[in-house]
Design goal:
It is a multi-pass membrane protein. The chain has 314 residues and is mainly alpha-helical. Helices cover 75% and strands 3% of the residues. The radius of gyration is 24 Å and the shape is globular. The protein contains eleven helices and three strands; from the N terminus they run αβααβαααβααααα. A three-stranded mixed sheet has the order 2-1-3. The chain has one domain: Rhodopsin 7-helix transmembrane proteins (Rhopdopsin 7-helix transmembrane proteins, Up-down Bundle), CATH 1.20.1070.10.
């Protein structure tokens, strides 16, 4: 055989090998999700616990959305943004917890490739929208009308959706050739990137860009708004008024710090060792605990909301 013929045969064989490699690299059609425990007793305990948290989050946030929507006295900017927060919490828990409960009920739970990307899309979209509702600053309702307050809310939803679409689109370009065990109970960008056998440089760059915008910038803006609120409280002469205001804002600070710290920890989390176990706890905090606490922290303790709930439901 001539050198040219041998070269042609060699190139053809390489092309066949490349095709077979591409087929094998795309062979992963579902992922195995890691549970919290392999012991049946603990699995049952976690199942009951997360079911109660799921129901509490749905009930609390649904009450807020219903009361604010049906009671005209709450049609103000601050409650408009609290409605956004409640809706995002409902979507967040509904995206994560049903699959978690299924995997706790059935040992060895899995999620399809399409289902994993769908969960990733909605979870990333909602997490990017959380900083819309914070607290009522001074003179808030006097200058922020309906068109003005709809602009920042709509902009955040749109920007977050665009960012999530980019992350999900880049994820579909990657090949997964095994292993298919996700070291979490949900699909997240960092955990999926560790399973890919394709170059992930572009994905990593986009993660850094999104973290800077949605994490650092939004956190600084949130803290700046709280600084303005604290400065306004300090100018209040009433001691009891200061005490009530600081009590309210301290609980808000706690929730904000909990949310941002857990999200940032997840993004910079190392991929091995005991940090994987810690990562599951952290993921529970911002996908389950935070949406469950938000209704009582931001709305249900408010006397106006209590009045609205009584008038709407009783």
């Amino acid at each position: 055989m001539s050198p040219c013929a041998r070269s042609a045969v060699s190139q053809r064989l390489q092309g066949l090998d490349h095709g077979m490699d591409t087929h094998n690299r795309s062979a992963v059609e579902e992922f195995a999700l890691q549970g919290f425990s392999e012991e049946p007793g603990l699995r049952g305990l976690f199942l009951v616990l997360f079911l109660l948290l799921f129901l509490a989050a749905l009930a609390g946030n649904t009450l807020i959305v219903t009361a604010i929507s049906l009671y005209p006295g709450l049609h103000t900017p601050v409650y408009f943004f609290l409605t956004n927060l409640a809706v995002s919490d409902i979507v967040c828990t509904s995206t994560v917890l049903p699959k978690l409960l299924e995997n706790l009920a059935v040992k060895g739970g899995t999620i399809s490739y399409q289902g994993c990307l769908t969960q990733l899309f909605f979870l990333t979209w909602i997490l990017g929208d959380r900083y819309v509702a914070v607290c009522r600053p001074p003179l808030y309702s006097t200058w922020m009308g309906r068109p003005v307050r709809a602009l920042p809310a709509g902009s955040v939803w749109a920007v977050s959706a665009a960012s999530t679409s980019v992350h999900t689109g880049l994820m579909t370009r990657l090949a997964f050739c095994g292993p298919s065990q996700i070291q979490r109970f949900l699909c997240e960008v960092p955990t999926l990137l560790r399973l890919s056998c394709s170059p992930t440089t572009l994905n990593d760059v986009m993660i850094v860009v999104a973290d800077v915008y949605f994490g650092v910038v939004s956190f600084l803006l949130t803290m700046a708004s709280y600084c303005c609120i604290v400065a306004s409280i300090l100018r209040t002469r009433s001691t009891s008024g200061k005490r009530r205001a600081f009590s309210t804002c301290s609980s808000h600070h706690l929730v904000v710090a909990l949310y941002y710290s857990t999200v940032v920890y997840t993004c910079i989390l190392p991929g091995s060792g005991s940090s994987l176990e810690n990562g599951k706890v952290v993921a529970v905090l911002y996908t389950v605990v935070s949406p469950t606490l938000n209704p009582s922290i931001y709305s249900l303790r408010n006397k106006d909301v209590k009045v609205a709930l009584r008038k709407v439901f009783f």
